[in-house]
Amino acid sequence: MMTADPQTIEAAQPVSAAARLMLDHDTGAVIVTEDGRVSGIITDRDIAIRVVAADKGPDTPVADAYSGDLTSVGPDTSIAQLVQLMRSAAIRRVPVVQDERAVGIVSIGDLAIERDSDSALADISAAEGNQ
């Protein structure tokens, strides 16, 4: 169910590089690493709010814009545990981490496709991106 081999970016890179990864890979989030180890996640909303709305430029380091308070799971986490975690933390995306490295990411859309394939969210999540 998870998206394997998620996009990652080092915290020192500019947010423009994160935005380019989002564009090129049709995703709204990129996992942030420091020295190769997962440290957080940056979303398109983070860039809009913490960079664009704050009148910062595209060279702003990802470290200044990403969500560092990371909630992650391991590859053996059950779907029920994942759903409960996402509900209780009110989060839409959860990196799957093994040995401090990102091995996947699960979104609320992925859960909708897996658990309620007839829902509007599942349909939207399964549709091709509209770049």
From TrEMBL:
InterPro entries: CBS_dom (IPR000644), CBS_dom_sf (IPR046342), Diverse_CBS-Domain (IPR051257)
Domain CBS stretches: 2-60, 66-121
Cross-referenced SUPFAM superfamilies: CBS-domain pair
Keywords (A to Z) from UniProt: CBS domain
SMART domains for the chain: CBS
PANTHER family in the cross-refs: CBS DOMAIN-CONTAINING PROTEIN, CBS DOMAIN-CONTAINING PROTEIN CBSX3, MITOCHONDRIAL
Listed name of the protein: CBS domain-containing protein
Species name: Nonomuraea dietziae
